[in-house]
Design brief:
Number of helices: 5
Distance between the termini: 10 Å
Order of helices and strands: HHHHH
Oligomer: single chain
Radius of gyration: 20 Å
Shape: elongated
Length: about 140
C-alpha cells in the first residue's frame, strides 16, 4: 500500500485486511502470500487484544510469566498445552511474515542494487529519486 498506493487508488483502504485483498487483486502480492499475511495479522491482533483486555492494560508486550502465557493461550482456544501451542503458533506466523517481508521488500531492493555499476552505488538525492520510484 505504501509502495504502490500513490499510483494506484484501488489500494487506498482503511483496513489492513482490505488493503491485503486489494494488493492481491491488483497483482502486487500473490494470493497465497496475501492469505498468509492476513492469517498472521488476524492471529497477532487477536493476541494483542487479549493481552490488552486482561486487566485492561494498554500494552503491546507479550507476557513472559508462565501463568499469563497459559491464560493468553487458553483465551485463544489453545487447551492441551496452551503455552507451547501459543509459542509454536507465534513463531510460525512470525517466520512467515519475516519470509514474506524479505520476498516482497528486501530481495527486490537487493536485486536492484546488485545491478548497479561501481560508479552508480553512490547517488545524489536527486539521482536516487527516479531509481527508488522505479522500485515502486
Amino acid at each position: 500500500q505504501l509502495v504502490h498506493g500513490r499510483g494506484d487508488a484501488t489500494l487506498h483502504s482503511g483496513t489492513t485486511l482490505d488493503a491485503l485483498h486489494a494488493l492481491a487483486a491488483g497483482g502486487y502480492v500473490g494470493r497465497t502470500d496475501a492469505a498468509q499475511l492476513g492469517d498472521a495479522y488476524r492471529f497477532l491482533r487477536s493476541m494483542e487484544h487479549r493481552i490488552q483486555l486482561y486487566r485492561l492494560r494498554r500494552t503491546h508486550l507479550v507476557p513472559e510469566d508462565e501463568n499469563d502465557l497459559r491464560r493468553l493461550g487458553r483465551s485463544m482456544g489453545l487447551r492441551t498445552e496452551p503455552v507451547a501451542e501459543l509459542n509454536k503458533a507465534w513463531r510460525r506466523h512470525a517466520s512467515a511474515v519475516r519470509r514474506l517481508h524479505e520476498k516482497l521488500f528486501y530481495r527486490p531492493l537487493l536485486d536492484a542494487v546488485a545491478q548497479l555499476t561501481p560508479g552508480e552505488t553512490r547517488l545524489s538525492p536527486r539521482a536516487a529519486g527516479p531509481r527508488l520510484a522505479g522500485l515502486g
